[in-house]
């Protein structure tokens, strides 16, 4: 149990929540001018109380009016206990039921019921009100809890309420004092001379002056200047306390409600896709369709969302399903955080559940492993969760830190399970890059030759296919180390041939069709006729009286280059390989005899000028025969010691 308990004061508008808090603490939580003028709460009000035992609690008095529903949910999201307030003369009202549902979905487990305005009813009506409360709370966390008549006028029931809170606090689960500091922002303001101050309830850990925190989902970092607890400056604040935190280097416009402060970098992941278990309220009147538009509340954040069901198209009242929320605005919840779902118009609670995953991948019906993974997270089955996580990681190895981040299981337990999977050969230890599913590895290995066969069939003239093209078709996001290991094994088994950055199936022979062969023969003849003079494909196209399609000509030229029958120069012109071999011999002989080659020498050897000659000479440089030094070229293997004239 934590040292500090937050008590939510819930109930219908004008049922006496604020009067109850004022009676118990002496504090009027309606502090805004508009609240005074309208006689109702707009923002959640905070009031501390020290119980006779010394236990410290903070009341959160939430708005009861439907118009401020968003603030109601935000206020109740942080509660450890609740006081459900009903006016004895009014009984159960719409917001009474709705607030109770919110508390249930937010995980509240302790509390009491207060029947306010008890001075306005007689004994018989009071007994009827008690029976109505028992019917309302049946099956909820408030079933069997104290139902206390109270009056702010004569203060009847005040001591009983305090005593009941003492008893409930003994069993109430407070916030986690040992975890890293985390807090949802629910209020912010600008204070002259200090700058931005944000407020909220510390969910875990502690925060002090000069601590460094990170603000999610934006990832901004800030240094804490001072900390206040109920308007008193302190050196350190702890889990469960309501605090104000001064962040002087953060502008007010950079902050909004729903953001999260965190002291441990990397603990949270912000995203637009959240997976979780959703419970559709049994009191709803009609089925809920897949892909409904809703409002999602978690912590103090809210976003419009598309709710995608996993494994079904319709949910009937009272049913549950795994769902994915596709958000309009990013959120940064932690796995295990609670959420509430409301209809769009009018806003009313239709269900809620628990966050099980923050992901980057949209759910598709084919992703059956996703559902099994979420079920394992929900049941805290670490082995099954990791097994399905590997099955879902189709192309990328997983590191222990990634698994911990994804599951929120302890690192030592994760490592133990993964080591066991390695021993059973269910996953492969890939060293620094992490671990990879053996099943996925074998599937990718079996897929690659089939992909090569399809490419060869589609492109019968391609002798070798680039590694990049094959990788893109087999698994676009596969880690290079995994891909190269697959290639190495397949080549060792004689199933593929790897040449530099290209791959081929053994025994594959390019087979041009009749038209392609005609174009090939024509290009070869034209290249022979051109001799040492490079030619463009456009020149060939015109020479053959435009009877071939230009795209087909380009493909056949590429094919001849792959067969080393044509050479493509850097100006996209071509020359036959046979003539290029002659040129290489002539150039090599000239340089051997004369010591170097000038541009004028090349004109005499090649028989044409600078425009055609330079690309040929640059090709010789590229293949490593020659090397340019100033205005001359020398043989590359004889370049040492050459003096430039």
Describe the overall structure.
The protein has 645 residues and is an alpha+beta fold. Among the domains are: 4-171, P-loop containing nucleotide triphosphate hydrolases (Rossmann fold, 3-Layer(aba) Sandwich); 182-262, Translation factors (Elongation Factor Tu (Ef-tu), domain 3, Beta Barrel); 271-370, Elongation Factor Tu (Ef-tu), domain 3, CATH 2.40.30; 578-638, Orthogonal Bundle (Arc Repressor Mutant, subunit A). Strands 7, 8, 9, 11, 12, 13, 14, 16 and 17 form a 9-stranded antiparallel beta sheet that branches. It has a 6-stranded mixed beta sheet with strand order 2-3-1-4-5-6, sandwiched between helices. It has a 6-stranded antiparallel β-barrel with strand order 18-23-21-20-24-25. Strand 24 and strand 25 (349-359) form a beta hairpin. Helix 9 crosses helix 10, helix 11 (438-458) crosses helix 12 (467-474) and helix 18 crosses helix 19. The longest helix is centred in the C-terminal third of the chain and has 21 residues, at 438-458. The N and C termini lie far apart (90 Å).
- Overall pLDDT score: 88
The total of beta strands comes to 34
Q: How is the CATH topology of the domain at 4-171 named?
A: Rossmann fold
Radius of gyration: 37 Å
Residue share in helices?
A: 25-40%
β-strand amount: 25-35%
Uncertain runs are 640-645
Helical stretch count?
Answer: 19
> Architecture of the domain at 4-171, CATH level 2?
3-Layer(aba) Sandwich
Biggest sheet record: 9 strands, antiparallel
Q: What is the general shape? A: elongated
Q: Indicate the structural class.
A: alpha+beta
The CATH superfamily of the domain at 4-171 is P-loop containing nucleotide triphosphate hydrolases
Q: Report, as a whole number of angstroms, the end-to-end distance.
A: 90 Å
